[in-house]
Design brief:
With 213 residues, the chain is mostly helical. It has one domain (2-201). The chain contains eight helices and no strands. It has helices at 2-36, 39-42, 47-56, 62-69, 73-83, 89-107, 111-143, 148-201. The longest helix has 54 residues, at 148-201. It is rod-shaped.
Length: 213
Amino acid sequence: MYGLLFDNSGMVIWVMWIIILCSLAAMTIIGERFWSLQKKYISPPNLVAQVQQWLERKELDDARINLLGQTSPLGRILAAGLANRLSPRYIVKEAIEDTGRHVIPELERWLGGLGTIAVITPFLGLLGTVLGMIQMFYGLSDMGAADPIVVAGGISSALITTAAGITVAIPCVMAHRFFRAKVDSLIIDMEQEAIKLVDMLHEKPQKSSSVNY
């Protein structure tokens, strides 16, 4: 019977290691996204106000636009619009939208992996339990009647993987939903700031422009 229990544990331990690795990966993703998706890094306040000051003081040049584009994802979007500030409104909007399409995947980085971990870990736990139960009952069929206490211990050992998988999946689901909502909120903030920039650029013709708006 001791050999049976040892074999049962051997069947599920590799599944447990996969679940542990998934939990470590999930913790890494959650920590990185918590840090990276702070609003001050994605959509810093007062960027549009700073651009307005540059325009009013006639200090806006390519160097400042390039610097703005390196500050944050919102800075990249605003810089794309400013690089086309002498063009018609629809050109400015297209430049901003095109840059936004490249920025959004950066905000969603690793969220697909976190969602995958949330989905597969309960199944991994169930797989470990099923394999453990199969191995245990296979051994019982060879050995005949066994001590119920020992059988119950083997079943509880097999169920540990299911509990572990669910324990990993629950916080992953919660974190994934939280970060998705966070990304959506940041996208809305950046869209609003970009609209402010477009409206500001086309309130009146720029003196340095030869284009009629």
